């Protein structure tokens, strides 16, 4: 027997509970794992509160991230005792996730825990940190450099934003952190932000082209914020879009792309090939110091995941939440 969050919906009525489960109920897969740590992402919070259509198969154990040790395996790459890491692949949506003591997964989805990180440190970064690293790699791939001007990070006090600020500052960028929590200015400056911007300056409808400000952007918000960020990006700049906290719409024009040669790069963390995942995680190992991880993260017990999910969606969480299984 093991403990896990179980989500179910019957006749349209949603139910979530921490449940004792039998191992025979585990889903199909070729690697059975013990989960030592998970984390609470925006998508997990939507699932735990039924505030978004994340879960596509019922019943479901949420948790798109996990880290721990292998218990049993018929996959050639994995042996009992191996340390593993998981981000995405539809886990917590169509396949049981990691907010429980055990799960069964496809070995092709797993990565070996990056050398230099503990399981907890990996989950303190989680999909948020990995997504931030993918954004940085996209900015570098498309040629933007710190010499060309400052970088804007929206939703900067959240998980992706916090890690993005730290990564970009470490790489020599002058980082402007946009946030609705101006009381978090000391925290953001500790991570490396050079300037703080009130998110309200970006969240209202704006002109198709505005004053050129940013050589690059990491946007976690979407909607008018993303549209304004594109409109303010300098000629040849790169905008990475990885979130929709402000909405799924994109009320923009083509002007920044055809008049300023701006690149809009979409960042998906769920289905990235292993090679891209390894490159992103190595970037995190190389650039994020342990003390920065501690500054960004705090632990919660498994039984508090749903309460914390509500707080996250209500904008009451800074940085990262690590779920100690």
Number of domains: 2
Number of strands: 15
Reported CATH architecture of the largest domain: Alpha-Beta Complex
Distance between the termini: 14 Å
Computed structural class: alpha/beta
CATH class call of the largest domain: Alpha Beta
Major beta-sheet overview:
7 strands, mixed
CATH topology name of the largest domain, in short, is Quinone Oxidoreductase, Chain A, domain 1
CATH superfamily of the largest domain: Medium-chain alcohol dehydrogenases, catalytic domain
In terms of DSSP E residues, the strand content is 25-35%
Low-confidence stretches: none
What letter string, H or E per element, gives the SSE order?
EEEHEEEEHEHEHEEHEHEHHEHE
Percent helix among the residues? Answer: 25-40%
Summarize the entry for a quick read.
By secondary structure, the protein is of the alpha/beta class. The chain has helices at 42-49, 119-141, 159-170, 185-191, 223-231, 255-259, 274-287, 290-296, 305-313, and strands at residues 2-10, 13-21, 31-39, 65-73, 83-87, 102-105, 111-112, 151-153, 175-179, 195-198, 214-219, 233-241, 263-266, 297-301, 320-324.
Characteristic key phrases:
six-stranded parallel β-sheet; Quinone Oxidoreductase, Chain A, domain 1; Rossmann fold; 9 helices; 325 residues; alpha/beta; single chain; seven-stranded mixed β-sheet
